[in-house]
Design goal:
Blueprint (H helix, E strand, L loop, with lengths): L8 E6 L2 E6 L4 H7 L23 E7 L10 E2 L2 E2 L1 E3 L4 E2 L10 E3 L3 H15 L16 H9 L17 E2 L4 E3 L9 H9 L5 E4 L6 E4 L12 H5 L5 E3 L12 E6 L8 E7 L2 E7 L12 H4 L15 E2 L2 E2 L2 H12 L4 E4 L6 H14 L2 E3 L20 H6 L12 H8 L5 E5 L10 H4 L3 E6 L4 H5 L2 E4 L8 E4 L5 E4 L13 H6 L32 E2 L16
Parallel strand pairs: 1-8, 19-20, 19-21, 21-22, 22-23
Antiparallel strand pairs: 1-2, 3-6, 3-7, 3-8, 4-5, 9-10, 10-13, 11-12, 14-15, 14-26, 15-16, 17-18, 17-23, 24-25
Helix pairs in contact: 2-3
Length: 543
């Protein structure tokens, strides 16, 4: 039975023009969908409404009704509109049929101007040195709705600067506009209520509770949602202006949740990774641990060139040596759930052609119930769908070691895994011809006969299948650090070279297929001053 999940529409009037919007939707969101921006600071669609910034004040009205008959009162052939005597905040208003809204009246403009002036009274002129410059809502709204000059003659309040809230977040309190987004996120989403306000009035200060600090694995989301430059990433602080950075859509590979991300880079160097909105997967959040993965691109132990028997070799010579090694006899393959779907399919074809036994190791950890799953690989479902394996991931490689000792295996291909750390002793690996494709040097690359460089997720394009069996694409963010790499052609020829991912409106997986093939285009790699999109609840990918 097919059901229609589309929300019912109602008609509202905005500045004299009728529009159809989803019934019951938050007014800020509804107006945004029809291209009418309502300025706001404290409102965030994924957080409870606070209504404390007052920037979203609008004038509301509705058709008047006769008290005796409950019929709509008509005036000159049109319903007579009764306007509320005072402006109301749009963030606490839900859409109802016949709602009338004024966004550009003199009264509304005066409200925005007054709120902006109040917020700037004690706000420092830090724009030239503030990390938020270029994506600061206060900066944008001040230019659009502010007076253009200050009437304040007294000395501004001095509040703490460069305050350590936790190991990853630094606070400049004098920039804080008390929107409480960070407080609500810590309490409602991260379930770690450590933030609050102390003192009163213009002396209000954001702080951690005594004896506590902001040290959960989602703390950097408070930086993402801060509309000003009060909360900053300690790692990214003063590193780069955002308007110089290129944005590339990608996927968090720390677990099978598959949080959608944006990689920010310039001239081949990655500076930060932030969440990218996908309501079906991660809403607008991601774990802090996933933001640190980009540092592996420039790690000192990267495999940047091929080696044969630990000696440097050209890629051509290494490929010839690899071909000879893999032709030595019965082949076993150690595949990986860190490979893309495209890479897994190619490896599955090789395994089928050589009648090779394939091992896909498991990487398990403790899930957090949000966006870090117990499966710490991004694409084991891809291994199932592509036919690379037809069974659950193996806990270790002791069975492979036994086959080597028994003489059943004469050559081993290891792709993106540290086989020695997974239970295949280096002494056992030395008994056979071996080829390793790896991004970083390890005990396995030290023991392998041939080592070929591989690309990190930031240097290639492809697709992953997350724990929801949702097909999601990632795009190459920076040039490959290895000058020449045998896996580059797989990345270049993959469908994900033109990135597409499952979007916020993607349907659930089709019951006739293990993979949801519904995919919508994410933003292309571009330069932009806009922060990641923000739209209503906790993350979905709780796998």
């Amino acid at each position: 039975m097919v059901t229609d999940n589309k929300p019912s529409l109602v008609t509202i009037n905005v500045d004299g023009v009728e529009h159809q919007v989803p019934a019951g939707a938050n007014l800020v969101d509804a107006l945004g969908k029809i291209g009418k921006e309502v300025p706001h600071y404290c409102y965030h669609p994924k957080l409870p409404v606070a209504g404390n910034c007052r920037m979203c004040l609008v004038e509301l009205g509705s058709p008047m009704r006769d008290r005796a008959t409950n019929e709509v009162v008509m005036e000159n052939g049109k319903p007579k509109i009764g306007w509320q005597p005072k402006p109301a905040i749009a963030c606490a208003t839900n859409v109802s049929p016949g709602l009338h809204v004024r966004l550009e009246s003199p009264g509304v403009k005066a409200c925005r101007e007054g709120v902006t002036e109040m917020l700037l009274l004690n706000h420092p002129l830090d724009c030239p040195i503030c990390d938020q410059a270029g994506e600061c809502k206060l900066q944008e709204f001040s230019a659009e709705y502010g007076r253009g000059y200050s009437r304040y003659l007294d000395e501004k309040n001095a509040k703490p600067k460069k305050t350590r809230l936790g190991p990853r977040v630094t606070l400049d309190d004098e920039r804080c506009i008390l929107c409480s987004r960070c407080v609500r996120f810590s309490s409602e989403i991260a379930k770690d209520p450590v933030l609050g306000f102390v003192n009163r009035g213009s002396f209000n200060t954001l702080t951690c509770f005594p004896g506590r600090e902001l040290d959960n694995n989602y703390s950097l989301n408070t930086v993402d949602i801060c509309p000003v430059g009060a909360l900053t990433s300690t790692d990214f602080r003063f590193k780069m202006r955002v308007w110089f950075l290129k944005q590339t859509p990608s996927i968090d590979t720390e677990s099978s949740a598959g949080a959608n991300t944006t990689v920010w880079s310039r001239e081949g160097k990655i500076y930060r990774v932030t969440p990218r909105r996908n309501d079906a997967v991660n809403d607008t959040w991601m774990a802090d641990s996933g933001r640190e993965l980009f540092k592996a691109v420039e790690a000192p132990n990267r495999v940047t060139a091929a080696t044969v028997k630990q000696a440097p070799a050209t890629l051509e010579a290494a490929l010839v040596a690899a071909q000879q090694a893999l032709a030595a006899g019965p082949l076993a393959i150690v595949g990986s759930a860190h490979m893309s779907v495209e890479e897994q399919r190619l490896l599955a074809r090789l395994a089928q052609a050589r009648n090779a036994v394939v091992y896909v190791p498991a990487h398990l950890g403790k899930g957090d119930g949000l966006l870090v799953s117990e499966d710490r690989t991004p694409n084991f479902r891809g291994a199932l769908v592509t036919g690379l394996t037809d069974r659950a991931p193996v806990a270790d490689l002791k069975a492979l070691a036994a086959d080597i000792d028994a003489g059943k295996v004469k050559s081993v291909l290891i792709v993106r895994e540290d086989a020695v750390m997974l239970g295949l002793p280096a002494s056992t690996l030395a008994k056979v011809r071996s080829v390793a494709l790896a991004t970083h040097h390890s005990v396995t690359t030290a023991a392998a006969e041939v080592v070929l460089p591989a690309l990190t997720v930031f240097e290639r394009s492809g697709t992953f299948i997350n724990c929801q069996f949702r097909l999601q694409a990632f795009a190459q963010a920076v040039p490959a650090r290895p000058a020449r790499c045998p896996t580059a052609s797989c990345s270049r020829d993959s469908p994900a070279s033109t990135p597409r991912t499952s979007g916020p409106s993607s349907p659930p997986p089709c019951p006739r297929s293990p993979v949801s093939t519904a995919r919508s285009s994410p933003p292309k790699a571009s330069r932009s001053t806009a922060p990641p999109g923000r739209t209503t609840s906790s993350p979905k990918a709780n796998c």
